[in-house]
Each structure stands twice: as structure tokens, then as C-alpha cells.
Amino acid sequence: MKYIVLNWKLFPENETKAINLVSLICQNFKKLDKKTQKKYKLILCPPFIYIPPLQKYLNAQKFQNILSLGGQNVFYHNRGAYTGEISPMMLKSYNVRYCLVGHSERKLIFHETNEDIRNKTQALLNQNMKSIICVGEKKRNERENSMSFRIKNEIFTQLNEILRGIPFDKMTSLMIAYEPIWAISKNNPTVLPAPEDVKKAINNIKFWLETRFANEAAKNIPILYGGSVNPQNFQKYLEISDGVLVGSAGTKKESIAHIIKNLS
Ligand code: PGA
Asked: Which of 13, 31, 60, 138 has its CA 20 to 30 A from that of 66?
């Protein structure tokens, strides 16, 4: 199973556009042959406010088996005086089963710490929801690659702090998105990590998970790649990973239609 996770961030501008985009995604997916459809799991993380109308739309069109909805963020308490927050339980009540946590924009702009991310992960796991944890290094110099000590150390430290105390039996509800922050499209990367290099980063993460959970089965935790995934490169990144986390390209009609149509 390969995952295509779309992170819409603060797009599109209104509900009508959101529904149109979802319709385009589902219609194109439906046209794929059944064997290809079975290979992929599509997850869309829209702004919170679009979740109820999109869920309604998906149900009405019988698209609920084609596309699942996810949150872009969540709070770690289910009730209380926390102005502006959304709880795992609220998301679950709209049939949301997935949620991104620790996206770099949450960390850099909203000062989320690894402890916050751990609490959010734990709160999602308590609701039996899947937590898509984003990790990745801030920058690289031209001599560094995925095997460089500094890079491995940065990623392993994030994993250590985020997954501390997460019990072994919750392992199957985890997903990891390897997102080198410098490769995210809004940071205007001049080069992207080569797929072979991403593959090494993914293997490092797999090795860390296997050691952390002291179990071979940890190898089955899906590890996705994210960072400027687009119609030109998505196939290469899909080949070496368990899926892709797509930002900007998932909000543009032509790009997302191209990606869906060319899944194989
Ligand atoms: P991008 O965003 O695909 O626009 O680089 C990815 C992300 O930030 O999740």
C-alpha cells in the first residue's frame, strides 16, 4: 500500500473550490483500473473548517472509500478552556482517522515543540487515530547527505523526543513523513534530494524505529517523503518510499489531476 497524503495548508479560499478539487481528485481516481486503485490510499488534510462539508460531499457521492480526510494539526486535550483548538475526539466525530503532527510550519511559525508533538501523537493514539509525524532536517550544506552524522542526529533526536513513552502496541497507528525542511516548495529549494538519498534517509528511520520498538514489525510503519513533490518527480519518490506528502501541487487542479491520472 502506498499513501498519497495531500496537505492543503491554508488553501483553497472557499468551500466551493474545496469541493471542486475533491471532485476532480475522486473522479480521476475512479478512472484508474481496479488493481491500481487498490495499491493507493488517498488522504486529504484540508483546513479544519472544510472537513464537515467535504465529509458530507464524499458520503453523498459515495467517494468515502476513495478519499479519507485527515487533520493538519490537533490539540492534545479533548475538552477544556483552550480557545481556538480542535480535539482528536472532535475530528473523530467527523470520521477523521488521520492527522498530521509536527509539520515544520507548525514548529517554525507556531513554535510547536517536540513535547507538544509527542502529546498530540499520544492524544491521537488514545483515540485510535493514525498519527502522521513529520520529521526532517532544517538545512544541509553541499557536503552533507542523509548518511551525514549531523543529519541523522537531527532526525533521530526528533524521533527520540516525539516517540518517547509511546507503547509498542500503538506502533501500527504511526506513520512518519520524512520532510527535509529545506526541500519544501515555499522555501524555494534550488535542488531537491535525490530519490536514492531519500531512500537512505527512510532506511535510517526504519532502522531507528526497529531499534526503538525492539521489533522487526516496526519496519512496516509507513514512511513517506514530502518536499516539493510535483507531477515531474512524484513517481520517482513513490518508488523508494511508502508514499508521498504533497503540499502545493495538491492544491492546483492541473498538478493534482496529473498525479492521480498517472498513478500506476
Ligand atoms: P510542498 O509542501 O509539497 O509544497 O513542498 C509539502 C509540505 O509542506 O507538507
From this structure: 13
**Structure confidence at residue 217 as a pLDDT band (50, 70, 90):** confident
Q: Give the pLDDT band of residue 177 (cuts 50, 70, 90).
A: very high
Are 125 and 131 spatial neighbours (Cβ–Cβ below 8 Å)? yes
Helices (H), 164-233: 195-212
Measured CA to CA, the distance from residue 143 to residue 196 in angstroms comes to 16
- CA distances 155 to 68, 105, 256, Å, are 28, 16, 29
Alpha-carbon radius of gyration of the chain: 18
Query: Domains, the chain, ranges and CATH?
Result: 2-261 (3.20.20.70)
Q: What is the pLDDT of the chain when averaged over all its residues?
A: 97
Three-state SS for 39?
A: helix
Taking the C-alpha atoms of 69, 244, 3 and 77 in order, what is their torsion angle to the nearest 10 degrees?
A: -40
> Which one, of 135, 131, 117, lies nearest residue 43 by Cα?
131
Query: How far is C-alpha 199 from the geometric centre of its chain's CA atoms?
Result: 17
Please indicate whether residue 229, judged by its CB atom, sits closer than 6 Å to ligand 1.
yes
Q: Which of 10, 198, 229 to mutate to test the pocket of ligand 1 (most atoms within 8 A of CB)?
A: 229
Q: What pTM does this model have?
A: 0.98
What spacing in Å lies between the alpha carbon of 184 and ligand 1's midpoint?
Answer: 5
218 pLDDT tier (thresholds 50, 70, 90): very high
